[in-house]
Amino acid sequence: MVLLDLLNSEARRLILFGGKGGVGKTSIAAAAAVYTAEIGKKTLIISSDPAHSLGDVFEQDEIRSGKVEPVQEVENLYALEISPKEVIHDYQQYLEEYPELKIVLGNFDALPGSDEGFGLLDIIRMYRYENYDRVIVDTAPTGHTLRLLSFPEFMKSSMIRLIRIRRALGSVLDKFASFFRKKDVPGKGDPVELLERIKQWAIEAREWLSKEETSFIVVMIPEMLSIYETQRLIAEVHRNNIRVDQILVNKLFPLDTTCEFCLAKRQLQNQNLKLIHELFSPFNPIEIPYLKSEVHGLDTLRIIAQYF
Fold it and tell me: Which residue among 15, 122, 200, 206 is least packed, with the fewest CB closer than 10 Å?
């Protein structure tokens, strides 16, 4: 299924845009979000990139609030720049109730990839429980994205190990933790229950990413480094049982120009485009040109959407 089919589909959709840094993921994801909102789909666009730029692309400072904000002048469109610290803090409250777990875990933000991982749990929660027809995710550059996608499996395996440790230590850990428990805090249930709950969150996140309604769209540019990174990204996305539906090749120089530099760059791009279409033919590569103006504001986003 190609991108335009996904955007026009009657089914609910979770669509993630990923790729190398600097290829234009945010602009293209924002253009897709504007398109779906303007055809009547209630749409939420989420940025999971620590270097957020949705507020810049939409020219709206309110989007930087860390909360869901309506996008001005576009009915049905909402935006969220995820704040990793706030998301982790929301989950940290569960850990505060179990001193014995804090002895083993420390804080959630000490876990490798926790920023991306708990952000992913939040994305899945927004998709599952909020009333949106489309949830579009502007992911971080490739390395962050891969940590985001692999976090559920990491969390699941980590929780399984911690459950075994907790059961093995048993009363020894309980006695040690009693020194840290506040006197006025009533006794809690078995911490294994919390570990099981976290493990289940991870399993559910993995299942939702693997569902038919979830799609991954790769954004790249016609350069060799981007080609190599796209190959690695697609392999890892497939390894995580997530479907890649399309590749968008962005920032093509014009052919009808008298600029010698532009023509030289385009000739090199044409060579790379040939390789891209050979390597990635199953993903229906779509070519998107460089725009004459900077990509921010609704007018330029609507122009980009015309190339879908």
Answer: 200
Q: In the chain, at which residue ranges do the beta strands (DSSP E only) sit?
A: 13-18, 43-47, 69-70, 77-81, 134-138, 214-220, 244-252, 286-289
| Residue appearing with tokens 């590569």 | 285
In the predicted model, what is the mean pLDDT of residues 249-265? Answer: 89
Instruction: Name the CATH superfamily for 3-305.
Output: P-loop containing nucleotide triphosphate hydrolases (3.40.50.300)
pLDDT, tens digit, 9 for 90 and up, residues 204-239 = 877 888 888 999 999 999 999 999 999 999 998 888
Tell me the average pLDDT of the chain: 81
Contact 15, 46 (CB under 8 A): no
What are the extents of the domains in the chain? 3-305
Taking the C-alpha atoms of residue 202 and residue 157, their distance in angstroms, rounded to an integer, is 9
Cβ neighbors of 244 (< 8 A, separation 6 or more) are 215, 216, 217, 218, 234, 237, 238, 283
98 Cβ contact list (under 8 Å, min separation 6) = 177, 188, 191, 194
Both tokens of residue 181? Answer: 């428990």
